[in-house]
Amino acid sequence: MHSADFVFPAAGVKLPPGGLVLQTSDAAQRELESLLEFYLASGLDCFLEEDAVDRFALSAELARAQAEARASAPARPGAQPAPFQSGGPAQQSRPQAPASPTREPSAANAPVSGGAFADAVVPDTEAIHAARDAARTAQTLDELKSCLQAFNGCNLRLTAKNLVFADGNPNARVMIIGEAPGRDEDLQGKPFVGRSGQLLDKMLGAVGLDRSSVYIANVVPWRPPGNRTPTPQETEICRPFIARQIELAAPDVLVFLGAASAKTLLDVQDGIRRMRGRWMTYDCNGRKIPSLATYHPAYLLRSPIEKRLSWRDFLSLRQKLSEDANS
Fold it and tell me: What whole-number distance in Å separates Cα of residue 234 and Cα of residue 127?
């Protein structure tokens, strides 16, 4: 392959006829081209960040924030953490509490700070119990968002810039759920707005949907530092909020992007290759919601060959919506 014929698919930019402008020998040039071919074959066709990310610095920053929070946390003698109850959202449901007092609406992209809870790093089981209590008091989606903005039981909020609550139409028939926001989502305070979101928009458009006809959220509404995977404890702390969000939005169909969100809410252990393409059921306090898992757009950007399978999944979604509309 000549350098003049080499195309970087993600950017769509051809190298100049003279090749890369580098003072290298022909052998070194061939090695560079071979390396680029290897990257493309491996699915590495783009930069994830504009600048290099110092993971050690991010970890140190988080450790300092946690240490400061522990030092400033008031002592709670005699407090007993509530036992964690396993199971799906239906098993965790409790009788509805009276509606909480109306809170002042907050800006959509306001940084998460302050609230009814003290800034502290609390034991995971206690945080899960507090999350369930807080989520249960919300009677509307706006109240649920306010509860999340006031909730200090998840340490991810210490490093996130914004709460990423939802986007789209809360009255839509379809609710799409991912795992956690990334860098672009954290900056804008909306889910799926980066390259993954652009691909998701194209996938929706291919079956006649757009953001005005779907409701989009994540299991974890704060970006983990360095785009790392949320820990099981962080996911469990956030699960009561996404379960309540589903209950309040009351969609006809759920679509899970990636295995993580499906495993969390459907209580299944299969990988995404076994889950995708088949309809399952999410139990929302006795209401059975048809649910479909498919590949996460970020994975499709790394493995374009799998787009054909996601296309089948979205065709299945379109057929399901048509059947329900005609029934």
Answer: 9
| 8 A C-beta contact, residue 88 and residue 267 | yes
Tokens at residue 324, please?
A: 């329900």
Taking only Cα atoms into account, the Rg of the chain, rounded to an integer number of angstroms, comes to: 22
In 3D space, the residue among 161, 150, 156, 152 whose CA is nearest the CA of residue 104 turns out to be: 150
Confidence label for 326 from pLDDT (cuts 50, 70 and 90):
confident
d(CA 313, CA 128) in angstroms, rounded, equals: 33
Domains of the chain, CATH where assigned: 3-39 (no CATH), 84-326 (3.40.470.10)
Instruction: Give dist(CA 215, CA 78) in Å, integer.
Output: 43
What pairing do the DSSP bridges indicate for beta strands 7-8 and 13-14? antiparallel
- Token reading at 219: 């299991």
- The model's pTM: 0.64
Token code pair at residue 141: 């989606």
